[in-house]
TrEMBL record, chain A:
Transmembrane segments: 12-31, 104-125, 137-160, 180-199, 290-313
GO cellular component: plasma membrane
Record GO biological process: transmembrane transport
Keyword Nucleotidyltransferase: no
Location in the cell: Cell membrane
Entry protein name: ABC transporter permease
Pfam family, one: BPD_transp_1_N
Record domain ABC transmembrane type-1: where: 100-310
Keyword Cell membrane listed: yes
Record's keyword terms, sorted: Cell membrane, Membrane, Transmembrane, Transmembrane helix, Transport
Alphabetized Gene3D superfamilies for the sequence: MetI-like (1.10.3720.10)
Organism domain of life: Bacteria
Membrane topology: Multi-pass membrane protein
UniProtKB/TrEMBL annotation, chain B:
InterPro entries: BP-dependent_transpt_permease, MetI-like, MetI-like_sf
Record carries keyword Iron: no
Organism encoding this protein: Methylobrevis albus
Top-rank lineage group of the source organism: Bacteria
Protein topology in the membrane: Multi-pass membrane protein
Domain ABC transmembrane type-1: 94-283
Name the UniProt record assigns to this protein: ABC transporter permease
Keyword rRNA-binding: no
Length: 322, 298
């Protein structure tokens, strides 16, 4: 460890914490654009009496100043208390926490498959630049990359649920009544959708990065110094190809996390995304802001890890001061 | 997404002489995937613009036919759960899905694009502040940003346009900045500065025409993303609202009857796919052409 590296790590952590604070403030402000009376009316319905509105506003403390409520919300949030839903009256954390686990598992599974397949295809293509196979596959990847996620999901749903009948129509049933196996099965199609969503982007960057690394001077130099092909590949070529790749994998992990919203809804998977869509639809502002903050937390955590890996991989930063 | 380091067979870089629209068009049509993209896009545009003229019924009139009616001679694609003519809804359904992203990207470039153009040229603290601001905006993924705005202000057309415009701002700003940085040291800019031209005049009359290539390519790409974002939102029930005829909304409404009547879902789905694939192939070919030509250093 050297001083400059520590300084770099500290700066990135600080910047990410600041970002998180900013996201929380903007989210909270946006959820308070509506007047308290309007929030009450959107939840209770149009024909509601003035005392009922006043009672609702007082019960959910919507009449306190925004700044005080923001401070209170943040203080509770870091302790794991996300407030009570203004629609159902249940504690938000009870609905959110189990779903967060499922959604993270789903995003992780999808990313793992998508990133692995993407790198494999990219490296495969990098050795065939300019060939017919290369051109066809690259165009195919571009076509896949231009498909909205929900269309990829609907295609999978049509083939595997409607026509082949291999999977249940609503994933949620398995979580209410099914055993472990039934629950595991429900992950397959949503995870496959996320994998297909990420794969083309990873493959394109892996292809370009590998191609560039192998064509570079330092690989030629390593060969000329008489290093073994294995050392050339792993210590010189792939290590440098990994830099742009890690950054794009980071972007795509974030993409996978937000991609959960669509697959949840599409497959009826009881994750955080389905609850987010439902809470926006029903005007459940407290649930919405809690879920957005949880997503933001996960995303910032991913960014921190990506930053650290980049620092570790980049020889200019790693070796500085040695 | 637009990592354009690849060169495709059949594409000869440096063949097209100088910047300008004719050269841009020739570069686009030189790549086979560019031609396919332009063909698909033009076909879909014709369908979207002239389709409504051929619609036999109003797209929103209910109880035209018994609900959930299978295809017949009166109703070529049958009727949906409210007895509306599916064929007419399909012909009308492309308008909003094209118009909203188009207006959003125009808004993006009119605000963030122009701001970055001037800020990059000015440099210094202004440039730094603008850069940091747009970087911060990127800290939440696009879909979450749009969902937050829709949750706060409701899914009206205006909110959808602004939300999609906002998510496109950081990327557009980056493209403009890269292109301007590539031109800023050019002889013609320095000549204009030496003549004592005002900042605005240098930016608008000298730099702007020379960064139009990368900007045009990026513009097309962003419309694709706008279409993807809007159709996703409509699919989630938080975009274009009923009773409007919109391809994304049609998929959302017909999803529950996917088992019995898959056609009502498949048709708009294929239309959205064709539109975004066509636009993406074309804009990708354009990005590649502009980058290989060297006047779009990023």
């Amino acid at each position: 460890m050297n001083w400059r590296l520590l300084q770099q790590v500290g700066m990135r952590l600080g910047a990410n914490l600041l970002t998180l604070a900013l996201i929380s403030a903007v989210t909270f402000l946006l959820m308070n654009v509506k007047a308290p009376e309007d929030i009450a009316r959107s939840v209770l319905g149009r024909e509601v009496s003035a005392p009922q509105i006043a009672e609702f506003v007082a019960r959910h403390e919507l009449d306190r100043p925004v700044l005080a409520r923001y401070a209170g919300w943040m203080a509770d949030f870091v302790r794991g208390d996300f407030g009570k839903s203004i629609v159902t009256g249940r504690p938000v954390s009870a609905d959110v926490v189990t779903r967060l686990g499922r959604s993270l598992l789903l995003a992780a599974l999808g990313s793992l498959v998508g990133v692995t397949a993407g790198i494999a295809i990219g490296v495969f293509l990098a050795r065939r630049i300019g060939s017919k196979t290369d051109f066809r596959l690259v165009t195919g990847l571009l076509v896949l990359a231009s498909m909205p996620e929900f269309l990829i999901g609907i295609a999978l749903y049509l083939v595997f649920v409607v026509w082949l009948g291999w999977f249940p129509t609503q994933a949620g049933m398995a979580f209410s009544f099914g055993d472990v196996w039934a629950r595991a099965v429900t992950f397959v199609l949503p995870a496959a959708t996320i994998a297909l969503l990420l794969m083309p982007h990873i493959a394109r960057v892996a292809r370009a990065a590998t191609m560039e690394a192998f064509a570079s001077d330092y690989v030629d130099a390593a060969r000329l110094r008489g290093l073994s092909e294995r050392q050339v590949n792993w210590d010189h070529a792939f290590r440098n190809a990994a830099l742009p790749l890690v950054s794009v994998i980071g972007i795509n992990l974030v993409y996978a996390v937000s991609g959960v919203v669509v697959v949840d809804y599409l497959f009826g998977f009881p994750g955080l995304g389905a609850l987010l869509v439902a809470s926006i639809g029903s005007g459940d502002l407290f649930t919405t802001q809690a879920i957005v903050m949880l997503f933001a937390l996960v995303i910032v955590a991913i960014n921190v890890v990506v930053d650290l890996v980049m620092l570790w991989l980049n020889p200019r930063l790693r070796l500085a001061g040695r | 997404m637009s990592i354009a380091v690849l060169q495709q067979p059949g594409e000869a870089p440096g063949e097209a002489p100088g910047p300008g629209r004719p050269a841009l068009w020739r570069g686009l049509m030189a790549a086979p995937d560019g031609r396919v993209g332009v063909g698909l896009t033009v076909a879909m545009l014709l369908l979207i613009v002239f389709g409504p003229l051929a619609a036999p019924y109003s797209p929103t009139a209910i109880n035209l036919a018994p609900a959930n009616q299978p295809p017949s001679f009166e109703h070529l694609l049958g009727a949906d759960h409210l007895g509306r003519d599916v064929f007419s809804r399909f012909l009308w359904g492309g308008r909003s899905i094209l118009a909203i992203p188009l207006m959003a990207v125009i808004l993006t470039y009119a605000t963030a694009g122009l701001l970055s153009l001037v800020a990059t040229y000015r440099g210094g603290a202004v440039d730094l502040v603008v850069c940091r601001f747009f970087e911060l905006m990127m800290s939440l993924p696009a879909l979450l940003k749009i969902l937050l705005l829709v949750a706060a202000f409701g899914p009206t057309t205006g909110v959808l346009i602004v939300a999609i415009a906002i998510t496109n701002m950081p990327g557009a700003s980056r493209v403009v900045r890269g292109a301007v940085l590539g031109e800023i040291r050019a002889d013609y800019v320095q000549a204009a500065q030496a003549r004592g031209e005002a900042t605005l005049s240098v930016v608008v009359r000298e730099i702007l025409p020379n960064v139009l290539g990368p900007v045009a390519a990026d513009f097309a790409l962003r419309i694709t993303w706008g279409i993807i974002a809007l159709s996703t939102l409509s699919f989630l029930g938080l975009g274009v609202q009923p009773p409007e005829a919109d391809w994304g909304l049609m998929i959302q409404e017909s999803r529950s009857s996917l088992q019995k009547a898959p056609l009502i879902t498949i048709l708009p789905a294929m239309a959205i796919a064709a539109l975004s694939i066509g636009l993406n192939l074309a804009s990708d070919a354009l990005v590649r052409h502009v980058t290989s030509q060297g006047n779009g250093r990023r």
